[in-house]
Every structure is written in structure tokens, then in C-alpha cells.
Amino acid sequence: xxxSSRPGPPRLRRSAGDRRAQLVQxxxxxxxxxxxxxxxxxxxxxxxxxxxxLLFHYxxxxxxxxxxxxxxxxxxxxxHLLPAPGTPREEQVxxxxxxxxxxxxxxxxxxLAFVRGAGGGDPWVSEVYExxxxxLVELALTALELPDDALRRQLVLAWFAFTxxxxxxxxxxxxxxxxxxxxxxxxxxxxxxxx
Length: 195
Description:
The structure is a single chain. This protein is elongated. It has two domains: 13-72, Arc Repressor Mutant, subunit A, CATH 1.10.10.60; 82-195, Tetracycline Repressor, domain 2 (Orthogonal Bundle). 72% of the residues lie in helices and 0% in strands. The chain has helices spanning 16-30, 41-48, 52-58, 62-81, 89-106, 108-119, 123-143, 150-172, 178-193.
């Protein structure tokens, strides 16, 4: 037997859960430069070292794959925005805002595609988007020690919409310093909620 005819090391078979996680991770790695709707299944499969048809063994449709990547990205955003345990309440919203601005700076195109996809009525994006915003509203209400009623939820949701739009524009064309942006966002929230 020659060196070239020797079998290589045995290939490890991944469990279905491991393979799905790997494929979602590849999608997440591509998000800083590629909005989720523009991910190509061929590129994801190539990076995973599998065939396109095998990818569809783990995700029945492109939409199912895109939904899994979108949900994973939303979970990462949520984890990124959460205040560290023990953070004083008065610093929680400021820290969350600062981390959100950093997130949009890093993932601007993907984040805007996420927001626009939800606004455009794409049901799989809208579902993940609404869940994420609902969690963020609860976090803000808790941090601000506000009652969780319909009025406050509506006001905080409106503030999130304003924040998404302004931060998205600011990242593309900064018209004020980062500190001025954060001050403005905090001021608008305080005015809306009466804090």
C-alpha cells in the first residue's frame, strides 16, 4: 500500500443537531457582510463541506434555514443588549443603548435588512422581529421601573422604532457625536415615558 492509497482519517459524522448548529453558525458568520435574505445555500453548503441537497436534509426549505439564522442572530442581539448582573438600574438603559449602537455599526446591512424585512411583511422575519422587540420592551420597562401597561408598551415600542431608524441613519452618516446620539435617545425616551 502506498502513502497515497492509504485511507485518510475517518470522517466524523455529526449528529443532526450538531450539523444544524454548524450551518446556522456559518450563516451568522456571513451576516456582517450579507443580509440573511441574500445568503446563498450553495455558499453555506460549500463552507460546511456538504452538498446543497444535504443542507436541505437539515432544513426543509431556504425559508426554514433563513428563519433559523435570523432567530439565532436575534438571540445574539438580545444577549448582547442584556445588562450585566448587578448593573444599577439607572445605567441599564444607557448601557443597552451604547451596545445597540455598536451592534448596528458592526452589522448595519444585516440589521437594516432584518428591520426592513419585518416592515415589508415577510412573515418569518416579522415573527422573529416582533418577539425580539417584545423582549426588549419588557427589559426597558423593567430597567425604567415603569408599569407594564398598554400605554407604556406603545410608547416604548414607538421609541424603539425611532431608535432603529435614527441609529441606522447615524451609522451611515454621523451628524452628531456618539455621545450626543446616546443623549438624544435617552432624552426622547425620558420625555415619552415621563421619566
